[in-house]
Amino acid sequence: MANPIQRVLLIEDTESLAKVYKAYLRDSAVVVEHVTTFADAKVKLANQLPSLVLLDLNLPDHDGIDILRMLHNSGCTVPVIVITAHGSVETAVEAMRLGAYDFVSKPVEARRLQVTVNNALSFYALNRLVDKYETQHTRAGFHGFVGASTPMQAVYQMIERSADSRATVFVLGESGTGKEVCAEALHQAGSRQGQAFVPLNCAAIPKELVESELFGHIKGAFTGAQKDRQGCIQAADKGTLFLDEICEMELDLQAKLLRCLQSGKVQPVGSDTLIDVDVRIICASNRDPWKEVEAGRFREDLYYRLHVVPITLPPLRRRGDDVLLLAKRFLQQYGSEEGKRFVGFSRQAEWTLSKFGWPGNVRQLQNVMRQLAVIHPGGKVAQEDLPAPLSQVVCEPPRDTPAQFQWSQPGSDSSTPPPAPVEEAGAPQSLADIERQAIEDAITRCEGNITQAASLLEVSPSTIYRKMQVWQQA
């Protein structure tokens, strides 16, 4: 199937150059529409977005960089190739920040323009397919969870697939990752959502009372049992019982729980009566249950009964941009409770939030955001406003810190860094070289972290990845 004809908007005030560019692209599958002024370009863009923009920065009625700014501020992703004979470092950095796909210096060679245009059109066509797929398959939240990262998408899928099953789910993860949120999501996403959801933390109840809390008791079963009391299992009948920190349960009680799960009957403490129950069991632990089995602290037969569908929640440090998504959500929520309005974080503060390891996971992030909501007057949160331990994070890595990311050329030995290019004394750098140097410096300063480098340059990570792909193909 032939590729469809694509529209290219050429914004160039010199008629003779416009004719040359059109001739260069005559054999490409594009239709070139030409305008000579900022005003005409604005009208064209307002009526119908092209597939690509070729932009001269020196226009008779306006600065061409404002075309880039207008597209950037509107959220438009149309690729823009800047063609210029004059430019400074500031102009190059500004154009890059505003999302320019590439720079082409005048005079323009035919092959250079053809390759750049074809690469831009192909790359953005692929991006549109990826964006369409991600829009259909990526969720920013799910039944109480907040997060759009790849690890969380896998968690959402596991919850959906197992929500309607009667099989026991074992939720694993570090403290503070949201295991109870996961249990509630399983309950809400399944057919038992209209019934009771009963949580029981096995580590928060005195050992001598766990059996009564779990199975209930009758009057006079033990000292202080002044009336019959229904246990959590019976209270969750037709619904869901969530046993948090189940690895803290005593071995003798584990045997009674196993008997209950196998028979579907509960026997209150002090009673000879067996009561039929229909309960979906979800359990959780921040320990590895199999290691507890090997250590003799958890029954192997109970492990096989409970560890049917394991769901492992990722720690916050492995959830990428979810850190900022959660931080902004919590700050808005707690700020509203304190009667304050927040407008987000500075770039340096965002860098620190992303860089911090969050050993306490989401629970620790909540704590920090609540502190900020109380002590900060509102508005934008700066780097110096962040409380300890975030205030101890070095905002920029030391100059002598080796970069984790190294550029490699096709066919080169990746284990040996390429020699620095020798520049002719006094020779001016092209805008493309300036742009590449700025990106490489940012990546080095951020120890190879593309997301942080993009934040430092005030561009999106996809812009840097796009540039890297072009450099590798060159």
UniProtKB/TrEMBL annotation:
Protein name as annotated: Regulatory protein, Fis family
Alphabetical keyword list: ATP-binding, DNA-binding, Nucleotide-binding, Phosphoprotein, Transcription, Transcription regulation
Organism: Ferrimonas sediminum
Start-end of Polar residues biased regions: 403-415
Keyword Nucleotide-binding in record: yes
Residue(s) carrying 4-aspartylphosphate: D56
Entries under Pfam families matching the protein: AAA_lid_14, HTH_8, Response_reg, Sigma54_activat
Region of interest called Disordered, as start-end residue ranges on this chain: 399-427
Gene3D superfamilies attached to this UniProt entry: 1.10.8.60, 3.40.50.2300, Homeodomain-like, P-loop containing nucleotide triphosphate hydrolases
GO aspect biological process, one term: regulation of DNA-templated transcription
